[in-house]
Amino acid sequence: FGCYPSRDGLNWFAFVRATEADELERDPHGYLLERTRDWTAPAHEAIAATPAGAVTLEEVVARQPLERWTDGGVALLGDAAHAMTPFTGQGACQAIEDAVVLSECLRDEPDVAAALGRYEARRRPRTVEIWQRSWAGAVSAAKKTRTVDPARKDAFAARFERVVWAQLEQTI
Q1: Which residues, in sequence order, are bridge partners of residue 10?
Q2: For position 74, what pLDDT does the model report?
Q3: What band does 89 get if pLDDT is binned at 50, 70 and 90?
Q4: What angle (nearest 5°) sits at the alpha carbon of residue 158, between those of residues 153 and 163?
Q5: Would strands 70-71 and 9-13 be described as parallel, antiparallel, or unpaired?
Q6: Are the C-beta atoms of 105 and 75 separated by less than 8 Å?
Q7: Which of 44, 147, 148, 161 has its CA 20 to 30 A from that of 54?
Q8: CA 74, chain centre distance (Å)
Q9: CA dist., res. 64 & res. 81, Å (int)
Q10: 12 has which bridge partners?
Q11: What is the pLDDT of residue 105?
Q12: Nearest-angstrom CA–CA distance, 167 and 132
């Protein structure tokens, strides 16, 4: 579960294992309310405050980063080149970084094909590394059980609650 302020209020998202999709599809709002009943605030409260009809389901899909992003005078960037799961919060950030590096390469190299090749060479190692971390996060989140140190869990919950409530107060 995560949430962030937006111009229209608060947006939130929750990840559910594919094995639970059938139950989720029948009643997404009710399912999420039940699943978060004992969670630390504000997850349950945010879901409860959301009209049931406003809950939408989207599938998270990722693919390996492409081996090649450029061909002559054509280049891909962002998700077109390296779609990743949202577990590092870096999808849009990496697209922005792609755009900055692409513009620098085009500015500094008059030959477009050479500039695009340089862009790909500069960006690919970083995006692959971040993609791998993102995929590892997805794999970890998909595990049914994991051992968690209770003290670490409590510290994380307290910190999460402070940060999220501060964000909510600013939004409201």
Answers
A1: 5
A2: 96
A3: confident
A4: 125
A5: unpaired
A6: no
A7: 161
A8: 27
A9: 9
A10: 3
A11: 98
A12: 29
